[in-house]
Design goal:
The chain is α+β, with helices and mostly antiparallel strands and 490 residues long. It is 57% helix and 10% strand.
Length: 490
């Protein structure tokens, strides 16, 4: 009879609870994968050590130090440990719980209290000791949804580490290329300084021979300090790049002097294939992490919906209780109990509905964030491919420009030495060759930077099948745009 009554109560509570949750609002759609390069044959994870293609031992050492010491990466690792702990805590909610409780209370019972003498009206000890067991049956999956959310967030945190490592290695490589650019510009300025000193010597000899005036000599002298200014500016840029590298590797001013001139193999580094697999973007750690954030937000929404339904659990207690300590653990002081427990929210001032609306908003935000991440990845890839193609054409033209300007400078210098041209022709030719050399350095380094940025945009490698990384192992399933995780509830 008791069980029948409890069953009837439970069914009535369920029927009452089924009308409580609000109606689901329309969900925003995930951007279609087939139009963004996120479908096709699965590819492996990112190449773990892509920077070694530069064949520069110092760069390899700096990247390794950055991946070991950088504070930003350490923060991501701390977030992963916190997320893993949260996942363990959520999983514990699915398991039975047992506690041992004991209390000892000194009390004075009233004279007219229903306690047999001699305890009535006298101070005495009241003791209790026992074990209690409880198990939430999780009928509606609220705990399971909490576990799914925490697990998805832990996997996303793991992917965030992969993304932080990729971005950090890219930042070191870019700063190192900037150091290379500054050193190359310093070399050009030093070479220009030598050329201008050589022209000054020629002008002095021509002045002594009566072929030039002091005006030409002063013009030649005025160009030498400018070359020194250019050289000092390039050196300052190199020092700034060294400072940035030291910060990235987690060191201070003590590391500045240890960073020497780069020996990058620019032409051999990160060759771009003629075709890139259309689904390379799907392995980007930030894309995978954003997808997991959707999964976590949807699990949170389902858990918020399940909160409208009654909690059903099993509880049991066993222990001892008695007035006085002498017979606390006697057989007559034992006690046992157990049975189902139900808790149904009836009035909470709108808290459950507010939580559910908040979970819907969080899910919408996660979908929007994923779409923005994917669109940004597509734009980054397209931008860098355009830059690479444009810079390749510019380099061919600039090589011709540089060769022609250097020939023109040599001819102007020979004619000036022979007395067949004035200084202004030499100055004009030198200005052109200096600009051509600087432009050539900029184009060459920009080519490398564009290849690095493209590598980061596609997840760390141009190879469709390198060894799998942590990101690939933890990659979530990539459903279609309408395939949102759903679970039926009453």
């Amino acid at each position: 009879m008791i069980l029948r009554g409890f069953t009837a109560l439970l069914l009535s509570a369920v029927l009452a609870a089924c009308v409580l949750p609000p109606k689901e609002s329309a969900r925003p759609s995930i951007i279609a994968d087939d139009s963004l390069g996120l479908t096709g044959v699965p590819v492996g994870g990112a190449d773990a050590r892509w920077w070694e293609s530069f064949h520069d031992p110092q760069l390899d050492r700096l990247v390794d130090q950055a991946l070991e010491r950088n504070p930003t990466l350490a923060q991501a690792q701390a977030r992963l440990r916190d997320a893993a702990a949260q996942a363990d805590a959520a999983h514990a909610g699915l398991l039975p719980k047992a506690t041992v409780d004991a209390s000892l209370l000194r009390q004075h019972a009233p004279q007219n209290y229903i306690i047999p003498p001699p305890l009535a009206g006298e101070p005495s000890w009241m003791g209790q000791a026992g074990v209690s067991l409880s198990w939430d049956l999780d009928f509606w999956g609220r705990q399971a949804d909490a576990v799914e959310r925490a697990t998805a967030l832990a996997r996303a945190a793991n992917l965030d580490i992969d993304d932080a490592r990729l971005v950090l290695a890219g930042a070191v490589a870019q700063a190192y290329v900037e150091l290379y650019r500054a050193d190359a510009l310093a070399d050009i300025a030093g070479r220009s300084e030598s050329q201008r000193q050589h022209i000054i010597d020629i002008t002095r000899r021509r002045l002594a021979a009566g072929l030039d005036t002091r005006l030409e000599l002063r013009l030649a002298d005025s160009q030498l300090p400018q070359a020194r200014v250019d050289r000092e500016q390039a050196r300052a840029a190199a020092e700034v790049a060294a400072h940035q590298l030291a910060t990235l590797v987690g060191r201070g001013a003590d590391a500045y002097a240890s960073i020497v001139k780069p020996t990058l193999d620019l032409d051999a580094a990160l060759p771009v294939p003629t075709e890139l697999p259309i689904n390379l973007l799907a392995r980007r750690p930030d894309v995978l992490s954003a997808r997991l954030q959707i999964q976590a937000a949807d699990a949170q929404r389902l858990a918020a919906k399940a909160a409208f339904y009654p909690d059903v659990s099993l509880r049991a207690i066993a222990g001892f209780g008695a007035f006085g300590l002498d017979n606390l653990f006697s057989w007559s002081a034992r006690g046992l109990g157990g049975g189902p427990f139900i808790s149904l929210p009836l009035f909470d001032g709108g808290r459950l509905r507010a939580n559910y609306r908040g979970s819907e908003a969080a899910l919408d935000g996660a979908v929007a964030s994923y779409n923005a991440t994917v669109l940004g990845a597509v734009q980054q890839t397209a931008d860098q491919l355009t830059r690479i193609d444009a810079l390749a054409r510019q380099r061919v033209d600039q090589q011709q420009t540089l060769a022609a300007s250097e020939d023109a400078y040599r001819l102007a210098e020979d004619r000036y030495r022979a007395g067949l041209a004035n200084y202004l022709s030499v100055l004009g030719a030198e200005t052109q060759v200096l600009a051509a050399r600087r432009t050539m350095v900029d184009i060459t380094t920009n080519q490398v930077l564009a290849r690095v940025m493209l590598l980061l945009a596609v997840g760390g490698s141009f190879d469709p099948s390198p060894p799998a990384s942590t990101a690939q192992r933890d990659a979530p399933r990539t459903p279609a745009s309408h395939d949102m995780p759903q679970r039926s509830t009453p």
